[in-house]
Amino acid sequence: MRRKKKGELFLTFIFVLLTLYASWRFPWKGTWQALQQANLSLLLLATLVNLSSLVAKGWSWHLLLESLVPHRWQAAQKATFIGAAANCLSVSFVGEGFRVGNIVRQQKLPASSVITSLAWERLIEGIALSFLILFVPRLLPLPPSLNRLWLGALIVVGFFSLFSLSPFRAASSRFYRLLSFLNRSLPTSLSQLSSPRVLIFPLVLTFYNWIAAWLTFHLVLMAMNANPKLSASFLAMLSTNLAGLLRLTPANVGVFQASMVATLLVCGISAEVGMAASLALQGLQVIPVLLIAFIIILFFT
Question: Which distant-in-sequence residues (6+ apart) come within 8 Å of 5 by Cβ?
């Protein structure tokens, strides 16, 4: 455990040094100009689309959990927003733990059923994204240098989708051990979710979740007057999600910007505009979710 902590601290230290160096060398003047000239109407629309993707995520989870134990739709939505807010404030994947804890406490549900539904949600998310990765290159022109990366991205997505069926990684080793213990009861519940009739509507909602996230990226790039292609916004969405696996900072600040700027450079969008888009995008992804979660915790729990 100490070696793991030391390794995480070393990676964080290196990341901070690289971030400081990149920040010193970066042409921030062009970034501020792009932000000042941004289309506020498109940014507002992007915010609403992003929130709708989170609602779709919560709805998909609700349908999966409903097939195991009865509960309220509103409870699944509240837990989803609280979990998303927790992920924004943490350097580890604590959001799922908060979702489990919130809905178990509010609705008096068995934790094993909740964990099962979350495992299936992750698997369905991986399936939906894999289909997009397979078919988007057939429909949209991509930079030639990136064509060979699709297979690698697909393998990574598939691996982490399957990994989600193993015991959830949590914020602390104690909570991890708790979820590992509860996961022993999963095989009984997994059979209840294997019916295509149960999975079809959650899968549709998950497709919407990914497409709405894609549209959010595209709208933000349009707001920055980047004249983006759909392939560029899709690549930016994919790269930032894969980079999110690192989780070195709260909300992955810095890693998110670096991955998005690097991807957009390959697609012909300048670093200044790419940075402006990444800052605006992360702002509209984080701030509204934190506000909504705060209201939920303050008035509805």
Answer: none
Annotated domain spans of the chain: 48-209+286-299
Please state, in angstroms and rounded to a whole number, the distance separating the CA atoms of residues 74 and 169: 26
| Model confidence band, residue 25 (pLDDT cutoffs 50, 70, 90) | low
- Rounded Cα distance, 129 and 114, in Å: 23
The pair of structure tokens assigned to 284 is 């509209």
User: Is the distance from CB of 68 to CB of 189 less than 8 angstroms?
Assistant: yes
pLDDT score of 160 = 52
Q: How far apart are CA 149 and CA 157, in angstroms?
A: 12
Q: What angle do CA 183, 188, 190 make, to 5 degrees?
A: 80
Sorted by sequence, the CB contacts under 8 Å of residue 237 that are 6+ apart come out as: 213, 214, 217
Report the share of the chain in percent with pLDDT over 90: 45
Rounded to whole angstroms, how far apart are CA atoms 20 and 298? 37
Decide if 202 contacts 222 (C-beta within 8 A).
no
At 43, list the tokens.
């940014």
Dihedral of the CA atoms 170, 174, 175, 179 (nearest 10)? 100
Tokens of 56: 């779709």
Instruction: Among 79-93, 137-151, 162-176, 226-240, name the one with the lowest average pLDDT.
Output: 162-176
Q: Provide the residue type at 7 as one letter.
A: G
Q: 247: left (phi > 0), else alpha (psi -120 to 50), else beta?
A: left
